[in-house]
């Protein structure tokens, strides 16, 4: 009898796994071959265009700096921070002058921090049209999606357009690490009022990780005198098992850290917009059933109902 | 006699209209004349939804246009939308753009003024990859962005992206560009403006490029009707589809989440559109509020009562909890 039970269990596990594999195979593949590994060509033109555009009324609402910024000067400061330096020995404070040159002050209640959720947070803020991530501010907007590194060649412009060291290369302190360390610390310091942080609750290594930019530079730099509340939004990636919820695991750690810092917090793990943004990308996913689709039995609950019925039948058989 | 002429005249007009609709472009009618029929509001929505009335040319337009032109080719543009041969933005794209209107009377821009610019910036788009819209600009942009680079609205093509949401106009005086004020769309004394001429000719080229099936997103909650005679889609895009290359027009009628239902696939102005598609020798399909459109609308209004997704997912987790509890009971019970 016990053998039969184990067999039935194995079949059930097989059913569940089959569903899971189906979900995995649905996921689209990112590009296999990056175009180039050097500094993005025409980085200066792109930087200038974005910098000026962010200061016109047509770009991102609420993102205007308090006073006009001279974009040509800002480019020079950004360029000189690393030009002609060893691309693997960029000190963490290389962008100090760049930070000082940006007078940007995030409006109160508008800061959105994130860790591990880059695939959703920007679409989220764009749809919400209310919150700003680092990439929506003059600190991060210009270089979002770009690649850059220095060249020690004296005859060059100071930047290497052929080849850049890998971000994760061991023993190599790259420019982007210094840049994001400096800018993350800056937006942490600038945050006022209610702040929001979006974390991935389906990561096996934890939603709040000690080695993330948020944990290392953004959270520690928040001023409890200025930040009144922290709203944690947990993202459940479609088709991935939920690893943590509000009040558990590393999320509980972050909640405690907020309390210790004297900042109130809230936490939500079923934010509607999080689902809609993800489902827009994958409308046929089984978790994306809109009410109009569910008349009668829903597609998601059916397999589990069958399994439930099977177990009940087995239990009754057992009792008899 | 009077009876006969009364009957005869409308028929003649009808025939002319038919012949006109059947031709890829209304022969004998210039783009400038076609554009005169376009509703000012429709143009305002198309050109720059949030432009302040009477605002001048966008400051730093040169750097912004050049920056976007490189950005699209190197970073943000979808692969299939990038030009095969790199366009040099500073020395090729920008001069072609600015020479179309600078140092000219802002109300008298020639209808072919942007020909050189649009020729440089036009990229041949994938088959079945054209999205038209009317009253649904943002939805069309989202459809395009979510298609993973297979579908394009004019605003997500290379040429559209580069100047989208910008304002520009010329002046015969000084620097040639008027940064102080540009004429408004409903100014009857200013019939041929730079931005209307540009968007008119870009829309025309965009429609002529279409191959296979095309999609059009229409707003079924618009009280003026989803398919309007004076929209850019109706006057410029639909007549310029090449019916020997386009076989299907897929109509998508979207209603605002809490909006009224004015037109649907089976009612109102959509019937007129279907008729025009058939008369052009193409076929149509039509869908009311497809799931993707609803999902996109819900990302903007997630708290709307019909956008409830998260609680549903929660009930799924609840199922799993019950399952696990039962299974553990069962295993321990039989042990």
Automatic annotation (TrEMBL), chain A:
Coiled coil: none annotated. Pfam families: Rib_hydrolayse. The keyword NAD applies. GO terms for molecular function: NAD+ nucleosidase activity, cyclic ADP-ribose generating; phosphorus-oxygen lyase activity; transferase activity. Keywords: Disulfide bond, Hydrolase, NAD, Signal, Transferase. GO terms for cellular component: plasma membrane. CDD domains: Rib_hydrolase. Belongs to the ADP-ribosyl cyclase family. This is ADP-ribosyl cyclase/cyclic ADP-ribose hydrolase. It comes from Patiria miniata (Bat star).
Automatic annotation (TrEMBL), chain B:
Pfam families: Rib_hydrolayse. Keywords: Disulfide bond, Hydrolase, NAD, Signal, Transferase. GO terms for molecular function: NAD+ nucleosidase activity, cyclic ADP-ribose generating; phosphorus-oxygen lyase activity; transferase activity. Residues 1-28 form the signal peptide. The keyword Transferase applies. It comes from the Eukaryota. GO terms for cellular component: plasma membrane. InterPro entries: ADP-ribosyl_cyclase (IPR003193). Belongs to the ADP-ribosyl cyclase family. PANTHER family: ADP-RIBOSYL CYCLASE, ADP-RIBOSYL CYCLASE_CYCLIC ADP-RIBOSE HYDROLASE. This is ADP-ribosyl cyclase/cyclic ADP-ribose hydrolase.
């Amino acid at each position: 009898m016990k053998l039969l039970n184990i067999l039935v269990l194995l079949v059930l596990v097989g059913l569940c796994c089959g569903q899971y594999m189906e979900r995995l195979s649905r996921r689209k593949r990112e590009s296999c071959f990056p175009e180039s590994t050097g500094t993005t060509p025409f980085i200066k033109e792109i930087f200038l265009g974005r910098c000026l555009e962010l200061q016109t009324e047509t770009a991102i609402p609420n993102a205007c700096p308090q006073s006009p910024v001279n974009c040509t000067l800002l480019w020079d400061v950004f360029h000189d921070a690393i030009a002609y330096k060893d691309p693997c020995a960029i000190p963490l404070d290389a962008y100090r002058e760049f930070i000082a040159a940006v007078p940007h002050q995030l409006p109160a209640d508008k800061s959105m921090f994130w860790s591990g959720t880059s695939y959703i947070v920007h679409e989220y803020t764009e749809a919400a049209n209310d919150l700003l991530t680092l990439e929506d501010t003059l600190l991060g907007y210009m270089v979002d999606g770009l690649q850059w590194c220095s060249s020690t060649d004296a005859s060059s412009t100071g930047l290497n357009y052929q080849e850049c060291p890998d971000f994760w290369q061991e023993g190599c302190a790259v420019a982007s690490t210094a840049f994001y360390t400096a800018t993350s610390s800056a937006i942490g310091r600038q945050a006022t009022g209610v702040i929001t942080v979006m974390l991935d609750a389906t990561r096996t290594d934890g939603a709040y990780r000690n080695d993330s930019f948020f944990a290392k530079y953004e959270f520690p730099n928040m001023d409890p005198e200025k930040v009144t509340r922290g709203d944690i939004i947990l993202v459940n990636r479609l088709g991935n098992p939920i690893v943590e919820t509000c009040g558990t695991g590393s999320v509980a750690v972050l909640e405690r850290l907020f309390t210790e810092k004297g900042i109130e917090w809230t936490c939500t793990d079923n934010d509607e917009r999080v689902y809609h943004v993800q489902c827009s990308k994958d409308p046929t996913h089984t978790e994306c059933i809109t009410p109009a689709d569910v008349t009668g039995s829903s597609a998601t609950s059916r397999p589990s109902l069958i399994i439930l019925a099977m177990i009940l039948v087995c239990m009754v058989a057992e009792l008899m | 006699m009077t009876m006969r002429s009364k009957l005869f005249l409308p028929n003649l007009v009808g025939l002319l209209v038919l012949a006109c609709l059947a031709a890829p472009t209304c022969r004998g009618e210039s783009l400038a004349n076609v554009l005169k029929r376009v509703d000012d509001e429709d143009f305002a929505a198309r050109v720059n939804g949030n432009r302040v009335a009477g605002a001048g040319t966008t400051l730093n337009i040169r750097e912004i246009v050049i920056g976007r032109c490189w950005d699209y080719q190197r970073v943000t543009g979808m692969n299939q939308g990038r030009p095969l041969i790199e366009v040099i933005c500073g020395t090729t794209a920008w001069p072609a753009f600015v020479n179309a209107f600078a140092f000219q009377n802002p109300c008298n821009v020639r209808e072919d003024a942007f020909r050189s610019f649009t020729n440089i910036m036009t990229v041949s788009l994938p088959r079945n990859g054209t999205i038209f819209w009317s009253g649904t600009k943002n939805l069309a942009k989202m459809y395009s962005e979510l298609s993973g680079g297979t579908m394009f609205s004019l605003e997500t093509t290379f040429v559209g992206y580069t100047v989208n949401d910008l304002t520009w106009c010329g002046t015969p005086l000084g620097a040639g560009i008027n940064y102080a004020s540009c004429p408004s769309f409903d100014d009857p004394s200013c019939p041929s403006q730079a931005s209307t001429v540009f968007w008119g000719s870009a829309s025309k080229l965009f429609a002529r490029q279409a191959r296979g099936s095309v999609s059009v997103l229409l707003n079924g909650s618009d009280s003026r009707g989803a398919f309007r005679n004076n929209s850019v889609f109706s006057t410029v895009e639909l007549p310029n589809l090449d019916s020997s290359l386009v076989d299907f027009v897929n109509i998508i009628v979207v209603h605002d989440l809490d909006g009224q239902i004015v037109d649907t696939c089976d009612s109102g102005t959509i019937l007129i559109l279907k008729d025009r598609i058939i008369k052009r020798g193409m076929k149509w399909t039509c869908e009311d509020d497809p799931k993707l459109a609803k999902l996109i609308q819900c990302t903007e209004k997630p708290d709307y009562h019909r956008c409830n997704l998260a609680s549903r997912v929660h009930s799924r987790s609840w199922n799993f909890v019950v399952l696990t509890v039962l299974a553990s009971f069962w295993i321990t019970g039989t042990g």
